[in-house]
Amino acid sequence: MTQPIPSAHLHAALGLAARGIPVLPLREGKGPMGNCRACRENACGGRPNMKTPGRCVCAAPCHAWAAATTDPHVLTSAAWAPAWRQAAAVAYHPGGTALTVVDLDNADAVAWARQTLPETRTVATTRGEHWIYRGAMVSRNGVRPGVDIKSTMSYARWLGPGTGTMTDLPDVVRALVVKEPAPARAAPGTAAATLPSGDGQCPHRSPAYLERGLAMAEQRITDATSAVHNTVYRVFLAVLRVHGRCGCLTDGHVARLFTAAQAKGEGLRHCETAWTNARTRLGM
Question: What does the mean pLDDT of the chain come to?
Answer without folding.
Answer: 78
